[in-house]
Protein 1
Amino acid sequence: MTYLFENYKRAPIEFVKAEGSYLIDSEGKAYLDFSSGIGVTNLGFQPQVQQALIQQAGRIWHSPNLYLSSLQEQVAQELAGSYDYLAFFCNSGAEANEAAIKLARKATGKQGIITFQQSFHGRTFGAMAATGQDKIKEGFGDGVPHFSYAVYNDLASVEKLVNQDTAAVMLELVQGESGVRPAEAAFVKDLADFCRREEILLIVDEVQTGMGRTGQLYSFEYYGIIPDIVTLAKGLANGLPSGALLGKSSLAPAFGPGSHGSTFGGNKLAMAAALETLHIMKETGFMEEVRSKSAILLEQLQFAFQDHPKISAVRGLGMMIGIETSASLSKIVEAARQKGLIILTAGENVIRLLPPLTINREEIQQGIAILKEVFSELDE
């Protein structure tokens, strides 16, 4: 018997402890985590973040947004870096994307938002409307209007949807939930140029790709663009519920007092964790090491599976990798778990790997070895 809605298909194990890149279940078995809690614990289970939480819990863990927050200011400054961004804090990726939609509409006085087929932006009504997957919306009645869906990596399809009411174009630079599909560099540059010429806001959803996941703090840095609005969550506070919207300072008048808010957004515990997370990620050499390790992981997986009859592609960006396969995803996930490796799925036919950015080279080799075993045993 359960007292929970059964909207999640849960595996019959419970993790009760974690250390570094490993999860430990209630039976004491350790698992190498190639999921990072679906791209959340990007630093693994990091003692420095834990200590920051303990220290903050000993002071105060909640104060409403009616008062000053030096922690929010510090995190906002770290997130902005050299960019001309202001921050709004919330609790999740869906909330960050809802805020982005509201900001874009209010700042432009227009309602139309163009997103992309197979995109995923969240499960609240606005974020769900932005999502280009019908299966996410089934059974929930009429959605939020004024959304349209272009073809990913196809600028002409965007241009066809633009009209006088178009406020913004919103996209993921790697479509994660639909199969780990990176955007083409030329398409991204051309899209950014087009939006600038047409005075259309460009929103980049960095909920999964942000916070170092692709080897840069933000994936848009790979593409050489600066979006008008960026959304963050997942890895922002390394496991504490936290989301953020970053927007260019020119958009500030649209989010004046009373325009938008969040009771728990930017709470003390989440901000303490986020600040320590950012300090670690900005240490000299950290991102260079992530890029080096992610190149090893991707190249070795591509080499290992280049001739496998049930694998058609191994692709990704940074520590965000998809293995496209004709084999049963559920059987692969279960077999890997039995061998002590936690992995994810994406779309209809992709195994998704999101290891901690702090994973070491020995753990990378361990994970690759298990995956090779799993795929070699598929037909046995």
Protein 2
Amino acid sequence: MRDMATGTVTTTAERNTGTAGLRMGQRFFSGGIFWLLVIPAFLFFLVFFVVPTASLFALAFNKSTAGVISLSSVITFDNFVRIFTRSIYYESILRSVGIATVVSLICLFFGYPLAYVIAKTVSPGRNALLMILVLSSMQLDMVIRLYGLMVLLGDNGLINGALIKLGVISGPLPLMYNTFGVVVGLVQITLPFMVLSLIGIIKSIHPSLEEAARSLGASRAKAFWSVVLPLSMPGILAGTLLVFALAISSYVVPALMGGWKVMVLPIHIYQQVAETGRWQFGAAIAVVLFVTSLMAIAVYQRVAMRTTGGRS
């Protein structure tokens, strides 16, 4: 039979073969065979996430004994009582949440304008250059980047050295081994994740929407606050949640930039597990950190549903 549109000749056998292949593909994707593709990822998730997390939760309810890792059938809440009755631990919870929140807001403040510029840049060359600048900071190892910050912010670093040499200050400013140094280090590490989360969302906002607001008499600033910013809220929420999760769970940054003086939950976990060998109490602190992150995700879901009109 000749196809009138293309002028090609197809036989009945070829048509039957094509139809059979299409039906086989439909049966594959609609039947149980399709789910076989999910099994490798499911097994990986089960072995390397579910099992360790469940073991962590179980270990947290055992009596804290130095050097003992094996699970016990005796359940106790002493580890959690100790966390919430001693100021050094529950203050660390508040400090961890506070630092992560501040880092998220700072990354949003600096990251949104950069993401907006990249998303609105029409020239492919300029867009590629800006993306390279953002991604290049992620290519270096975290420790190397932090040591670079230590050279910059140290008591004898470039900033303090220049200010003292110019006579602006008489002594070095406390830029490291405090909360300020930890916040600067976390912002430097997590800022690219915020930018990358925002670029795609801002690009998806059609320029005609902003132009329509301008044609109705809105100024450029009014059109941005009324149209662009609300439509980019999913990216803002996703980037903020990602930065918050990275900041609250970071150990390397508080250890190097805080000099073991800024006590956050990951520092306590390391001390209990690596230094004192109390795996049970360290697991309890890890559970608190895990639950805190889940609460942040729950808040994110609630805010996201409200900002998207109830659509999750």
Protein 3
Amino acid sequence: MTDIGDQAPHKPVVGLALGSGSARGWAHIGIIQGLEEIGVQPQVVAGTSIGALVGGAYVTDTLNEFADWVQSLTVKDVFGLLDISLSGGMVKGEKLFNFFREHHENPDIETLEKKLVTVATDMKSGREVWITKGTMLDAARASCALPGLFSPVKMQGRWMLDGGLVNPVPVSAARAMGADVVIAVNLNAQLVGAHLSRDTRSQAQGEEGSDEERSIWHKMMGYFISEDGDDPGFFDVVASSINIMQDRITRSRMAGDPPEVTLVPMLEDFALMDFHRAKEAIEEGRSLVKRYESDILAWVGSPVADRV
């Protein structure tokens, strides 16, 4: 007969809900690294948009290599990975995701030890779609089809848009995949009014290069800002509209299904396209875990206590 007192306590299944938020999403990297440093290893990852991409890197055990790469990006590198198009969105996304295919693992997500679910939006019906099968990058790409910026993706015979349109911080998806404790990362709390920072604009416009390269730069920047610094440009309008929408949806969804722990990276000066500032975002993510370490361990259990 087994003494109940001798049985090891039940360890909760820890889930991560990694939210949408464009360049702020690099904070997800630091948060995951910070969690591992305090002995917390999530077994379930639900990701929306940039959260789907970072979550995919984590479950395929390539997060550290991915972190090294994003921290090396310059403004010119970021814009160089964008393939400008006017068909369905300003950016096709093919150059960016082809780069990932060449440099990172891309297994079928149903074969992975950790569970991954990405959130997309069915363009025709407006319904929320949870992707749990297929290659990691295809699942992430479908979740990253931000209207007006990235072109939609056809998957399973349906056109998919960004998951942030319906579920910006996918707590519900993490729970459905078996998570007992959900740590949510909300990047939308400070998004309103942030799209393309003035520093990014000036850096992009001031990049050195040939006359042809500079011409391309100015043409690309024309998509993002208006000639009149006072009036909002096309990208300003699209980005601000999406940011407002995601902020409101996030508040509603998280009020109805609150996570056990909510982490909000303090990146108020980060704009939507500041992908070259990964180092700052990653550091904030790691610091955030340190600040909330006691709360996190209260829910998931102390690794130190478990070893005693």
